[in-house]
């Protein structure tokens, strides 16, 4: 296996007295879907926000393609090709699809917004993702359904020259058909060479699309394994108890 | 940071793009109807308000519907509209600036002291007044964005504080008269009829040109374009409105044969330029886009890498700077500055102007044009009731009711918009 695209070592993160992430190690490889699983409150969203520069981590190393980098804010993350589709979708209801997709990174000619270029790129990206459900890219986001919003958020992430796309529970609020579409999309992103991290609660989804599974248990990385090396029940055990046979956290003593 | 966009799926597929909105003119109208019923009423309430009020007051007092009163209306609306334009920026963020009225008073006092007491030329006074506004805005914005005090509290404190500052600047309440010709001309002089026509023609041609260029650029890229009927309607509509207004204002208003009184008030092109400037900033620049984003979803804006604090401070700076311009107009109109300049109901009127025009009190929705339309509605109420001879008591009550009505329309459209998605 070559150098991981993203490697985290020894990440700690506390909110006041509450330590949410403890000594977390995490690797993501290009061309693969890495599923990040864990119980509610395990710290998945927090880990993702540390990767995306929303929260600074208290300590730990952050390496991109083997080189240490510093990520202090979302712009830093974006400059390293990291794009995140957040669980609480970061879209502005009062703006339209194009405006949301280019938010913070508008195309300009001189000081004037270059609307035709942005509209064209947005349309092309949506079409390339085989999105046919939105009527017009000039629709306000407030008028979209949950699935459509998810699609816009994903399109926003792949619009940029991104290397790593992280999706935080992208299918949680979707119906069966839309979930299927999003999962297909996730697989195609990886097949096109991107590194993809997928957070999901649904084991069927995880086993359907992922190459690797990383399991967080109470803020610690219990295990990171190839999907083909584990069974459903092993993963469930790791999620609920942090251990499964030889896999997982060694002893509870230190944490208790 | 990488500014390149690449399409991750280079499948070479041709993307079918609709050439124009389907459904033709009927489809467009149906769409518009749906938007209105969905709560997005735009300028409709303000325009309807202007029409209804004109009819009522014209019937009650024929002197309301005269060129002279039309010119009066426009000059009276000046300060309210300009302060309201600045407030639109703060309201877009979902904040409020209760101190904008007295900020305009402070800036007007600075102007009057420099011009009258110290004899500086007008441009020094104007520059100093606007700089005072900018400093006030920086202070308010800092307290709101960096210290984290709610804008309601910060600007309520400033509302009281600035009232004191005006008194102090004016030596406990003396009245300073303003005699500078340039300043006085703003609210008291009129353009020669030919200049009025020339500016009107320039405006309509400029509007038509930008519309046509925009449509051509979109067609070249294969993007949907507006129906030509819609573009034509907008251009012709503007031409007719502006044409009628200029024709009426160029009528002789003097009843005295010895001197002539006609032309478009100077304040009209002043407000027009400010309207163009800020509309351009809000709709065509990244800064303007970010104002809407911060007002719509602050966290999303932050995650998009927008410097949210800087945007919030800028909005307060623009608001207070526009309050300064409003103060200059008020000083021009009264030909003096006193402790009540920018006081009493100026702030209420300016907020009401923005909200009646369609700017939301909840943030994220609004245009600079709203302050112009709403400001005209408010001024029409004040002016019309004055002519009808109603007392101040009625004026206050009526204005309060109109503000409440506008806020209800705002809350109602929000509910409709939330329900329809
Ligand atoms: N901003 C915050 N402040 C304080 N505690 C937080 C914050 N965000 C998350 N937490 C806490 O951190 C823990 C992990 O949360 P989260 O990362 O959202 O878990 P997950 O996404 O795995 O369900 C939870 O106990 C949560 O209450
Ligand atoms: Mg979560």
From TrEMBL, chain A:
Domain ABC transporter as annotated: residue spans: 6-243
Protein name stated in the entry: ABC transporter ATP-binding protein
Keyword field contains Nucleotide-binding: yes
GO function terms (MF aspect): ATP binding; ATP hydrolysis activity
Coiled coil: none
A Pfam family that the UniProt record links to this protein: ABC_tran
UniProt entry keywords in alphabetical sequence: ATP-binding, Nucleotide-binding
UniProtKB/TrEMBL annotation, chain B:
Coiled coil: none
Phosphoprotein in keyword set: no
Membrane topology: Multi-pass membrane protein
GO molecular function, one term: transmembrane transporter activity
InterPro entries per the UniProt record, alphabetical: ABC_transp_permease
Domain of life: Bacteria
Gene Ontology CC annotations of this record: plasma membrane
UniProt xrefs under Pfam families: BPD_transp_2 (PF02653)
Alphabetized UniProt keyword annotations: Cell inner membrane, Cell membrane, Membrane, Sugar transport, Transmembrane, Transmembrane helix, Transport
Transmembrane segments: 42-61, 73-93, 100-116, 122-145, 152-170, 190-213, 225-249, 261-282, 313-334, 346-364, 371-390
Main location: membrane
Localisation per UniProt entry: Cell membrane
Function as written in the Swiss-Prot or TrEMBL entry: Part of the binding-protein-dependent transport system for D-xylose. Probably responsible for the translocation of the substrate across the membrane.
Protein name: Xylose transport system permease protein XylH
Higher taxonomy: Bacteria, Bacillati, Actinomycetota, Actinomycetes, Micromonosporales
